[in-house]
Amino acid sequence: MPRTVDVDPRMSLLDLLRERLGLIGAKKGCDHGQCGACTVLIDGRRANACLALAVAVDGREITTVEGLATGEELHPLQSAFMEHDAFQCGYCTPGQLCSAAGMLGEPGPSAVTDDLLVDPDLTPEEISERMSGNLCRCGAYVNIVRAIEEVAP
Asked: What residues does the 2Fe-2S ferredoxin-type domain cover (predicted)?
């Protein structure tokens, strides 16, 4: 749903979401774009909300973890995360989910792709590489990859 908010030009997208709009799914982990806890989708592409200025996303579609589900129906990634126990403390989970949703829509090779001329299968190695910008202090990576692998095309 489109929203109009007057903001200080120095305010980050993360602070706007959390402090002004009450969307607290995206977390402030490092506030330096290094952990991925604040990952949201901007026009369907992954972005660290702590690094984006709120004024820079004027008119663009922002999707947070709160917007992944359709009504009462969970997004397939949310269901897979629950099924595979892909979280422990849960702090990184919103960022992991948004990053995974964006990653699934981003074709092309990664740093671990053997043949750079083809769109690779999303193997556990490919998924791990593509999700490497999202840290999990609890070490739930194996189950996160399994959950994403279940949903991947």
From this structure: 1-68
One-letter identity of residue 10: R
**What residues contact 42, with CB distance under 8 A and at least 6 apart?**
52, 57, 60, 61, 62
What is the spatial distance between Cα 47 and Cα 99, in angstroms, rounded to a whole number?
8
Give pLDDT tens digits along the chain (153 positions): 788 899 999 999 999 999 999 999 999 999 999 999 999 999 999 999 999 999 999 999 999 999 999 999 999 999 999 999 999 999 999 999 999 999 999 989 999 999 999 889 999 999 999 999 999 999 999 999 999 999 998
Pick the CATH number of 76-151 from 3.60.40.10, 3.30.980.10, 2.120.10.10, 1.10.150.120: 1.10.150.120
d(CA 31, CA 129): 22
Q: Which stretch of DSSP H or E encloses residue 62?
A: strand 62-63
